[in-house]
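Class, carefully examine what follows:
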Amino acid sequence: MNKSFRDWSNDQSYLFPPSPHDWLPEGDLVYFLLDTVATLDLSPILAHYERELRGQPPFHPRMMVALLLYCYATGTRSSRKIMRRCQIDVACRVIVGEDAPDFRTISDFRKIHLARLEALFVEFLKLCALAGLARVGTIALDGTKVKANAYRYKDMI
């Protein structure tokens, strides 16, 4: 039995402007992201929903992955802030269309699929590097704690 998902169309038309795609320039990151997410293998995420047969139809996993990737790439990590951006940000509206997810839905999706999302993010970064959108390298942080002698009244004693 196949799991049914909510209808998702990011090409919905409006009265003014005629399409949400008219709001963004042609080379925007959102369009690259949507094309890239369409090629990613989401079978482990889809398999989770095949096993779950109760409740309302979930949001399409490709839409949720595209939304998380875009928001992470632009510096938004909070589920509540992502939900707010889906209401006011044109780029997020292009991704979700008219059906914006709730903050709890975003958070639960992230929690349930955390391991697979990590692998998808690495795969996405590699594709960005191949496309010339990002430089991928190694960043090393040293967590050494050093005792400091910077007491502000030291010279007065």
Summary: Residues 114-131 form the longest helix (18 residues).
